[in-house]
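ok trying this again, last paste got cut off
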Amino acid sequence: MVKPRFKGKSTINTSTASSNPDRPKTPAGSGNSMRDRATVRRLNMYRQKQRCNNRGQVIKRLSYQSTVADGTQARVEPNIKWFANTRVIKQSSLQKFQDEMGAVKKDPYRVVMKQSRLPMSLLHDRVKAHNSKVHILDTEGFETTFGPKAQRKRPNLMVGDMKDLAEQAEVSAQTYSAEKDRDLVTEDDGVREEAREEIFKKGQSKRIWGELYKVIDSSDVIIQVLDARDPMGTRSQSIETYMRKEKPWKHLIFVLNKCDLIPTWVTRRWVAVLSAEYPTLAFHASLTNSFGKGSLIQLLRQFGKLHTDKKQISVGFIGYPNVGKSSVINTLRSKKVCNVAPLAGETKVCYHFPSKYLQNKNT
């Protein structure tokens, strides 16, 4: 069989560079999420530079610049699609979809897949009541308030006459509380506020907060380790609010560690209470006699199946000092990989451990 001979160069580039839009793609399921052809062409367009001569005249324009001379009259291409029907949606259908999506988001055991393909911006209003702008200049302009054309002759007061002023004074007298009056002279009991000890300032540095947000940003699944003796005291509501607003695509689960120090019925009750908000597991960290290790690994495998585009997922551990984060990691690895100490702050930096349990395979 004779191969056809083409004149000139072939238009297909066989290079495997990341800037080649015609590079061969990897098979599906291999874990390498390569850029598609449109993305590569767009990035190449950003890196383009126009060529100019020594006089500053453009010799070669960019690919997205027009080659038509300046002043040429532009015309819109006639197409029947300009007069075709557009895709619309009823307000009732949008409201129904918004209600169903809100119910799914509140359920900690249901995950929304492919959020980028859904009109998420149409489902919730980001304008808050306390952040909404008050258009004062629209109702009362600057010229009508100040200057020679001012129409307002007196300032806006809370009362209009003496009768309203007397009623307001009577109401203030009835609601007066001596405990809230800071102008009253109080007796000196001799107690003075001294400088705080340096130990109370531990854990508030920018470095520690940087390590915390570094773990949150680089992890697909966040495990918040709680102490079973005081779950609500070792729970960070600010981190949960931050992830709910800023990182809604990340998964957050609770691990109730040290459950061997409390009765079984107390552990069962706390798991039922916390499971209403996030998936919660009871755990006992130990290298020889652990509890909850298999359930946690199975849960991480289920999260791994949700990210089919990744070969493995990243799991981050956060929590208060001495709740057992390092002990949980040692239990999952079945060996000592993190130092454990009864003093707070033994593990000060973020560690990275490749784990075979987190691979997106049925192993």
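PB: full thing came through this time. DSSP finds nine helices and six strands in the chain.
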